[in-house]
Fold:
Amino acid sequence: MKKEKRFSILFFMPFMVCFILFWLIPFVYGCYMSVNKVSLTKGNVGFVGLSNYLALFNEASMYASEFIEALKNTVLFVIISVPLLVITAFILALIIDNLPDKLKGFFRTIYFMSYAVSVTAVSAIFLWLFNGNGGFINNIIAKPISWLESQPYAWIVLAIVTLWWTVGYNMILFINGLNSIDGALYEAASVDGANFLTRLRYITLPGLKNVMTYVTLMSIISSFNLYGQSSLITKGGPSQSTRSLIMVIYDTILQKNNLGVGSAMSIVMGIIVMAFALCQQYLAKEKKDLMEVNGSEKP
Structure:
């Protein structure tokens, strides 16, 4: 038994090594830098305590307005994108799951292909589509729109880009979840006269609760990490309205040469993402309990 345990540790070690090297050590070092005055040129000047964190919320600080504005922009993007990413992926998964078996593999591949494309290529495609001056979309509509130079169109473009680029991954997760649901449950429900909506409510959604929670959580985290789309397509505009937290952190570290404040921004961003994740898990648990109560009350 002891030999089997030692052998099983060998399978666990690669994950632990990667976790320590690429997450734990950077996280601890980032926390250390966030309480010190650090720059790329002078190195670590000294301990400053919570000054870097206070600078993010002090109106007199040069970093506060940028950080707060970028935080608002990022949260707005999360609110816009996450429901689209989850609901659209779920609908696509339901459609593909009801296709003939010969067509399922084809459509899974088609929808997932966009996820394999780099953000640079995706941005180039949608810049060509939505360019205000001679873009493909403006050439086929009667009244041209300044898609990237005005709001809310800039957010609409970023939401469409993100949806097209990443929805395939979420869809695959939902399809795998649908395949894990026992088909006998649907057959029994059909015999009892249950329609599509009834089966969806009492079989499909409860069966996908764990997948739904995971997909929503990953979508929140990825949306908070908005950078490539806004940097390459809108360049943070118009009037910095699509400038994300990652863009501000990048500029603070490399342009303003302040690793201490940049690290503090990263830590605060991590805490905010964690708070969103905890709220999402709490709401998912409340919804699960409510569904179980409703299910127990159904005759």
Summary: The chain has a mean pLDDT of 89. The domain at 62-297 is CATH 1.10.3720.10 (MetI-like fold). DSSP finds 13 helices and two strands in the chain.
